[in-house]
Amino acid sequence: MWSITLKLMRKTKRMLIPAGIAILIGTAFIASTFLFGNAMGDSLARQMTAMFGGANYAATANVDGLSDKEIDKAYSVTVGDFHVDQLKAVEGVKAVRVASESAVTVSSDDDNVSGELITGASDASMLPVRISQGSQPKDANEIALPEQTAKTLGVNVGDTVTLTSRYATTETGGKTKANDVRVVGLTADPEGAYSFYGGAIVGSDNLIALMQGADDFNAVNATAVYFDFAMDGNTVAAKTLNDAQKLLPAHYELSSRQNVSDEAVKSLGGNGTNVVTIFLMCFGILAMFVAALVIANTFQVLVAQRRRTLALLRTIGAKKGQLYRSVLFEACALGLISSVLGVAFGSLIMWGMCAGNVIRQGMRLIFSWQVFVVPIIFGIIMTMLAALGSARSATSVTPLEALRPIELTDTKRAGIVRAVLGILMVVAGIAMAVFSVWRIQSTNGGQTAQANEFTMAVLIAIAGAALIFLGMVLTAVFWLPALMKGAGTLVSLAGPSAKIAHGNIQKNPRRIAATGAALLIGVTLVSTIATGAASVKQTMNNTLATRYSVDVVASGEDLTQGMADKVAGIKGVTDTVYAPAASVTLNGTDAAKPTTVLLIGVKNIDQVKHVMRVDLGDTSLSADDVLMPSYNAQTGKKLAFANGKAEFDTTRNKNGDMTRPLTLHVTQRDYRRIFDSYGAVGFVDERHFANGDLDTTTHMLLVKADTDQSGTSVNDLYDGIQSALSKSADAAVSGPIAERVTWAQMIDSMMMLMVGLIAVAVLVALIGVANTLSLSVIERTRESATLRAIGMTRGQLRASLAIEALLISLVSGIAGILLGTLFGWLGAYVVFSLYGTVVFPFEWGVNGIVLAVAAVAALLASIAPARRAVKVPPVEALAEA
């Protein structure tokens, strides 16, 4: 019997191709989802632990529960306190790097560039940046410059530069300086460890000490120590960890790179939940349901075509069980082959995206067992379940009945049980969705949710949406034919072909509902993803605007308007604000210690709105007002002001008494990352600097840029700004634009992958339309012959099938768009309300394209069945019937 089954499969392989494609696409989506999650997790892990360089462990201060005195002591640890020589001597320690940083200015001739100076390492692989040319510093007065810095200064490996500290001073009050510093290498920062500063400068030990004003390298303030421990598989010997821990200063603890990256990725994923994987996997599973409906229709067509062959097999002794197992074996073979091809196809898609840097620069293809096992098993099981109905149909008739022509049309009414079960599913799903939304709202939009609470809310929302959707599909036999009947009543006025199409749709509501449900699922998926993608994109853009409010910030006492004008003319720069600024102290907010504040003087609030990405709404700024952020940039705590007023300490006398307070009315907006050296950055009317209320201590240049529209890279933008400010001796340039652009690219790529893969589900569903029309032709052989015999032309018969396909696709498509929009809004709110205020858009463009594609594809799907219906002469068709 197995050999007969294989021969039948080879004979009808063209009929199996649509089902195979459906399975292939569904399993490809699931495999791609796992690969995307793996690649995204790996990329984020490398980005969040870029400071590790080649290290696998780090020792950092754990200040939880410590007093202020203990915290100060922990953060005052020096290089000498780490006993580096003893740490290197510990068995199992391959390399050690103590981390320390200093803000400096690099000068060559009259050009100056600000940067961040970091410690080197005995092994270059331990550095958080990569030496792209030359070597890392080993001897005194040696540095390795970022490639962009060297380009701006016009220096190469072997040249000398001058290094000036931005904070350490000499006994005479001048800034500490090192002349004739030799450039021995260039650095690149592929993981963005120092993207805020445009890269990092690696310096020799004596330069680090000099720039911090320390007597020697052992007296330099250290922030962490990184280890490269010998690994036995994926673990480090307990003795090695214990011996290293004993040598560490008080309150410093060892953490593995894996643990740090896991915690970092979990925190980005919503309090321990990998929302991206969950979000994608839900649609991967639903895509397989689309495939299941197409498979079911395909096997129904196969059984209908093979009814005489099956009858002959029953006549010569084949048992019902053998035929049943034959159909299931065919489904299993088809599922296995298609699923394996689907995994290969999904892997190829992700390989192309990673190799082409479509998602993110340097993203790698990471395989796991789930990539192979889950899609293949799921594909086989779904295929066999979809074929169960056809297997029963193959054994439901006796040999004598099977030898007679049979009508496969099912005119039975859908059962009460189906209706009740479907309605209960919809009601339960709505209740679960409402509960999940309420749960998210009760936790302040997810901001204060614990990991288990947030996870539970997400899972309940997913389960609720699934129940609603399954209930709608289950009851589609009731409401979908009713919608089509209403639409068909209007269409039938167009002529006889339209009337025939309208009648054919009403003849078999079950099969029409099954096909419409397949297309409904496909369109719902695309609409859900399109709506969710638009919502997530706008929501995350708003969130990015809040967290990275200004792209680039430059500060310096000798910054001039002319320099600001040069920056304004750089390609990619859209707006700038050049303004005076003063460092002041704010008391009585969110901490016992005074908060350092930088007040920037602007002409009007529109200047701020033009450079800030966050929406400031109808904010105004009069002479008595100050615009302040909602949170302290250093502590993360909310800034609170008594009576809505802030009192700034602008100057103090020798005794520390406040001599010139400034009290202003406070307007707060949630903007961040303006200047992390201060607890807050506020904006005031510039007249305060003219009338003596505030003394200008520095000048600020705020820059807004658009790298996408201008085609300018972030590196080129930094290079241009540094070049424009190169004549300033103390200008410091920093900004989160690199981080913001990286996140924006990842969001764009994720949405592109989701929409691209799910869009194919519509084509899969349209294969189901073609299968249904093919089956309809087989069932209506006698009817088609009768119509041809009484005068209906071939064109009219073709037109009736085309109109039938259009009615199915458009009615199902519109219903799918409405459902998909609601599901997209629900998913975006529940999953991404953690990050900010969710936007609820309607995607007119994508939904319109989906309907147009569905209509065109439906017309194309009707071609083959129509050709089959008209190619047989009426007499032969009647004889066959």
Automatic annotation (TrEMBL):
Gene Ontology terms, MF aspect: transmembrane transporter activity
The record lists the organism as Bifidobacterium adolescentis (strain ATCC 15703 / DSM 20083 / NCTC 11814 / E194a)
Protein name stated in the entry: Possible transport protein
Predominant cellular place of this UniProt entry's protein: membrane
Source domain of life is Bacteria
Q: How does it sit in the membrane?
A: Multi-pass membrane protein
Q: Which InterPro entries match?
A: ABC3_permease_C, Macrolide_Exporter_MacB
Keyword line:
Cell membrane, Membrane, Transmembrane, Transmembrane helix
GO annotation, cellular component aspect: plasma membrane
